[in-house]
Amino acid sequence: MGGDLMIESTYQVIANFIEPHKNEIIEGWYQKEYILTKEYQLRSRYTEFGKNIKDQVHYMFQQAIETNFNAASLQKLHYQFGEDRAALSTSLEDMRKMIFSYEEYLLRYLQQAKEINLLTISYQKLFDFSIAIHSFFTLSFEAILSGYMNFFISNIRDAFC
Fold it and tell me: What's the superkingdom here (predicted)?
């Protein structure tokens, strides 16, 4: 039980740090990672699409912070994101890249903040958070994948009925 309390307080410290930096984190991820996806390459000429993906990521990130990165409470939101990506014909590879590159970007951002003493937690707590956040992103990806696959199954079923 004590470990859960430590993780929860670590989440709160990190959430308090992330809150004023979330736009910077999202924009950095978008400029360094998202632009490498085929989804971006196919839709980059549509200015609104870039704003839309940032808005979606911002909303999901805010919900993750507010729920202390509780993937189960965000399952429906992630499922719907998967359906949206399927409707846009985003590849599974791009979805995987989007989710896990965001995780990696977030953790690198936190590590850099720790190194320059902007984030005031121990390296052990940052490591523990990294493990917990990987679980969050993995469970989130499972819900996204479920929504993605359901979209295609429903469309195939509808095509033959």
Answer: Bacteria
Identify whether 148 is part of a domain. yes
* C-alpha to C-alpha distance for 59 and 52, rounded to whole angstroms: 10
pTM over 0.90: no
CATH number, domain containing residue 118: 1.10.490
44 domain residue, yes or no: no
| DSSP string covering 91-146 | -HHHHHHHHHHHHHHHHHHHHHHHHTTSS-S-HHHHHHHHHHHHHHHHHHHHHHHH
Q: Are 137 and 41 in contact (CB under 8 A)?
A: no
Label residue 122 left, alpha or beta by phi (over 0 means left) and psi (-120 to 50 means alpha): beta
Confidence of residue 5 (pLDDT cuts 50, 70, 90): very low
List, for residues 100-126, the tens digit of each pLDDT value.
Answer: 999 999 999 999 999 999 999 999 999
Q: Is residue 40 part of a domain?
A: no
- Average pLDDT, integer, range 72-92: 94
